[in-house]
Specification:
The chain is an alpha+beta fold. It has one domain. Helices cover about 45% and strands about 15% of the residues. It has six helices and three strands; from the N terminus they run H-H-E-E-H-H-H-H-E. The protein has a three-stranded mixed beta sheet with strand order 1-2-3. Strand 1 and strand 2 form a beta hairpin. Helix 3 crosses helix 5 and helix 4 packs antiparallel against helix 5. The longest helix has 18 residues. The radius of gyration is 15 Å and the shape is globular. The chain starts with 19 loop residues before the first helix and ends in an 8-residue tail after the last strand.
């Protein structure tokens, strides 16, 4: 299978709302995201878009000790960020938004709908498996961004 540039990343249900924007004071989060945008030349790390940037947290899940470790924070355009969080985007507007996100996924990755559907199915399975547990956040790497 082709290596995908843009992937879906479902967060386990026990970790919903445990994002840095909710955990940090607003000024601290604002400073971090602005540094991240500047470091990456104010463009989306995936598709290169230069507007409507959002900071996306990259997590590593350690199944053995049930730790969700912050690995990186990266700038993504609105569309790439919504693909990453397609479950949340689906809550917002199932029909119209999801079709736009599917199209964006296919365009960025240069793949067809079958590849998208296979990837989605794999990520749903990961989400279901991970959501059976309570995950502990490891924010040790947050120091790098302050």
């Amino acid at each position: 299978m082709t290596k995908l540039k843009l992937t879906i990343e479902f967060i386990p249900s026990s970790s919903w709302h445990n994002n840095l924007r909710n955990l940090l004071k607003p000024k601290m989060w604002d400073d971090i995201r602005k540094k991240v945008y500047q470091k990456r030349n104010f463009k989306c790390d995936i598709c290169g878009e230069k507007r409507k940037l959002q900071a996306h947290e990259i997590w590593e899940f350690n199944q053995k000790n049930l730790t969700q470790k912050l690995i990186d924070i990266t700038p993504l355009c609105f569309m790439c960020h919504m693909v990453k969080h397609m479950g949340f985007a689906g809550i917002m507007d199932r029909r119209q938004m999801n079709e736009r996100l599917i199209r964006h996924f296919m365009d960025v990755n240069k793949v067809d709908r079958l590849v998208f559907q296979k990837h989605l199915k794999e990520e749903i399975k990961k989400f279901e498996d991970r959501s059976k547990y309570e995950w502990q956040l490891d924010l040790e790497n947050l120091k790098r961004f302050q």
